[in-house]
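Customer escalation, tier 2.

The customer says the design service returned an amino acid string that "doesn't look like it belongs to this structure." They asked us to rerun it and document both sides in this ticket. The original structure tokens are below, unchanged.
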């Protein structure tokens, strides 16, 4: 019998041929850099469990934003670490809070940079939970009211988009209503729609000082065993007015990224979280992997699964490799 006429390797022979048929594009335009802002002056603190990641005071963050923009990254996701915390997380919706002041400084210095703000209470509460605790449990509806106040405060400071990450029921609808009522109808909501109760958040909790003082977050974050529930969450958020849906973490949940994209046809972001980042850094530091190749392969896989945007601590570094 003659050899089959179809030889798939023909179009793999050269880089040019491989480029012509490449199905998935990865560029700096697809990446979002998470950043942490802290109180103080001239502060740059390395996060021990996240090599290469620092926490910045506002002036230093503005300088870092210059580097991020120069690398070709057009958007950041901003997390605040306040000097003081309380039971109701009041620093989150304080108009002179750390995030609000940072947003104003960033937009003044870098008006072209898209600033997305994390809307949650965990960094601001003394107990570390994502909402107001009553009787040992997070009170969903009261928390939603506080989250809406936080989103309004961020929008009034100049945030380009708000990203509620708390996983409270109904918060997207309330935030959308309040934004519209307060004259911020043009501010989009990037909803953490499928945020799992994951083991991969540890380094972030060091950076954001947000580990729960008691219990855990399984009462409001998704069970890692569930995918159908994630789709329901995503559709509910879309119906409440979300503009972009997020899956978090990314690589352990690529099946969920794909399903959310296919079943909603909405813009989808995936969060390549701190634990995913730190594992790659640790393996690279030990010489076990080629860091650059492994990171690009990982981020490409997230795009291939269906993510339109990727939140990753590698954004600035990866952008330099992609350009």
């Amino acid at each position: 019998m003659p050899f089959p006429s179809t030889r798939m390797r023909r179009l793999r022979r050269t880089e040019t041929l491989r480029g012509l048929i490449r199905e998935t594009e990865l560029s700096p335009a697809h990446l979002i850099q998470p950043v942490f802002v802290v109180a103080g002056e001239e502060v740059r603190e390395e996060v021990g469990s996240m090599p290469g990641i620092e926490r910045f005071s506002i002036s230093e963050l503005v300088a870092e934003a210059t580097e991020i923009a120069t690398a070709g990254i057009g958007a950041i996701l901003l997390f605040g670490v306040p000097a003081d915390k309380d039971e109701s997380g009041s620093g989150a919706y304080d108009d002179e809070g750390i995030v609000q002041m940072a947003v104003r400084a960033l937009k003044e210095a870098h008006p072209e940079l898209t600033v997305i703000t994390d809307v949650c209470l965990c960094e601001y509460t003394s107990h570390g939970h994502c909402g107001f605790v009553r009787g040992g449990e997070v009170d969903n509806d009261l928390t939603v009211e506080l989250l809406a106040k936080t989103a309004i405060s961020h929008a009034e400071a100049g945030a380009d988009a708000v990203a509620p990450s708390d996983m409270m029921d109904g918060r997207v609808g309330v935030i959308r209503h309040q934004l519209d009522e307060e004259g911020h109808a043009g501010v989009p909501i990037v909803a953490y729609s499928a945020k799992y109760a994951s083991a991969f958040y540890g380094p972030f909790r060091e950076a954001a000082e947000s580990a729960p003082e008691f219990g855990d977050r399984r009462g409001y974050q998704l069970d890692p065993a569930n995918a159908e529930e994630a789709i329901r969450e995503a559709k509910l958020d879309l119906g409440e007015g979300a503009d972009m849906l997020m899956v978090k973490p990314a690589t352990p949940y690529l099946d969920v990224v794909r399903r959310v994209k296919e079943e909603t046809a909405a813009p989808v972001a995936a969060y390549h979280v701190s634990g995913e980042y730190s594992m790659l850094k640790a393996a690279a530091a030990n010489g076990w992997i080629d860091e650059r190749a492994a990171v690009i392969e990982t981020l490409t896989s997230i795009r291939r699964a269906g993510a339109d945007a990727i939140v990753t601590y590698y954004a600035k570094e990866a952008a330099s490799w992609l350009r």
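Tier 2 assessment: The sequence is consistent with the input. The first strand starts at residue 31 and ends at 38. The longest helix spans residues 140-157. Sent an explanation to the customer and offered a walkthrough call.
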